[in-house]
Amino acid sequence: MKFFSVGILGNGSAVPTRIQNPTSQIVQYGKSRFMIDCGEGTQMQVLKYHFSYKNLNHIFISHLHGDHFFGLPGLISSFNLYARTEPLYIYGPPALENILNELLKVSATRLRYPLHFHALKGSETLYSTDQFSVLSFPLKHSIPTWGFLFKEKPENSRRLKKSFVESYSPGIEEMHKIKNGSDYIAADGTCLPNEDITIPPHKPRSYAYCSDTSFNPEIVTEIKNVSVLYHEATFMNDAEDKAAEKLHSTAAQAATIAKMANAGELLLGHFSARYSDKIPLLEEAKAIFPNSLLTEQGTVYRVDEY
Amino acid sequence: MKFFSVGILGNGSAVPTRIQNPTSQIVQYGKSRFMIDCGEGTQMQVLKYHFSYKNLNHIFISHLHGDHFFGLPGLISSFNLYARTEPLYIYGPPALENILNELLKVSATRLRYPLHFHALKGSETLYSTDQFSVLSFPLKHSIPTWGFLFKEKPENSRRLKKSFVESYSPGIEEMHKIKNGSDYIAADGTCLPNEDITIPPHKPRSYAYCSDTSFNPEIVTEIKNVSVLYHEATFMNDAEDKAAEKLHSTAAQAATIAKMANAGELLLGHFSARYSDKIPLLEEAKAIFPNSLLTEQGTVYRVDEY
Prior knowledge:
alpha/beta, Metallo-beta-lactamase, Chain A, seven-stranded mixed beta sheet, globular, 10 helices
């Protein structure tokens, strides 16, 4: 199975604190890296936590509140100074393209690498390979906002049992056939049925990013059965009115969405600066969805099979 | 004498490192604070080093390279979230106004405090009170760039000698007259000449900020006799060609300007990420201008009388 993870660079909300930076994450699948959001100071967080930009060619910006993209112009500029040559693909709300062009213009920056901008619309597939894809879907916030779903494609072929391979040493062509459902005829003519010598393919893993968003059960269809869900939990339930007013969510609401979506694990983040102790947020979520975690900056979470 | 200082929030150049943030400084004069430049992450540096925004109503942006202003949109936004009501005055290159307006628009931010923008032009007085003023002057860089001079106004009146006040306890009106040059007639009719009972006024102090700039002796007239000069020293003299190409300065060139301007003290900054050890830069500067210092992030430097 390929390595699949999400690393947290910032888990705070709009106002930074000494321990909370604005939002940014790096998703890794195999050797590829993808950035989600790029709040102010993301570059410094990458340095601080020894994260890497290697094979990071796609950046997804959820919406144009500053705490989700004010670090992007600096990162684009630093990539230039690092002598980047690989193309960079940025997916974001339509107005972002003009802003980036304007900032490049006033700073007289001539990029030495190609920058491709894709304006987000409704729900669509943004990126796709044989094994992996990234999809966008709308969230409900005070300005147009998108969530992102990173998902492995289902394996078509079954996997060979290790014990069978060790005992019979089948050839490459034979192994290929067995993976696709054939039985195996041993040297003595015995037929080994496919189901005895193979196991089913891995269940495809997925990671969904939902921030910023009000409590919105409509997104459940987009993220049904997701392995790991990152859902904003800006407030606790005692500030439910404030959450509704600001189109944010509470920890309990995040957990409710995780439960409705039948998620494997819930990662909580986008914490308001008001909570110096976040254990109560975790307890509030766990009461509804036990497999909840508080994200920590600098920590990498594996996206496991559930 | 009023407290007069400059605090360093970032002393690095374009590419941030683990120990160098992009440029920002806070000048304090009495109770007033002034920010110069606002590179990405300035807010986090203010938090980290326990600097204050109290009475910080004026921000001066030297030029539109990202490492000098990419932190400004976030700061403007945080001031709003901190429920600021005092007006904020921003002085910067003309194109900055449109960028800030555009960022406020796309993020649907309605500021709750008045934001006044002043477009920099040639040399001019930007701010002036009875005691203090801030002036701009052009620097020579790859895009339009300004330097700033913060200066105390000369005191018109002489200061009373402590020994005279203690011995004769003059009245308030008498003290006022003596400060303006009168002699003092004691109770026994003796005349004490003004020069015996007063000392000359303080020499006015000043602070000049010159970053980013190529080596440019033309600025010497603008900063002549400055008490403390901050001058960029992106490179060392062995990279003089690179400095010239990028319109930056070397440590030796910064020291030459300090010497030509008859400055009291030279603060070096805007260091290239290539120098992990900065002592050689200091030595290069000291060989030309002995009263040179390497700036440290989080440190506050007093602007003394020289």
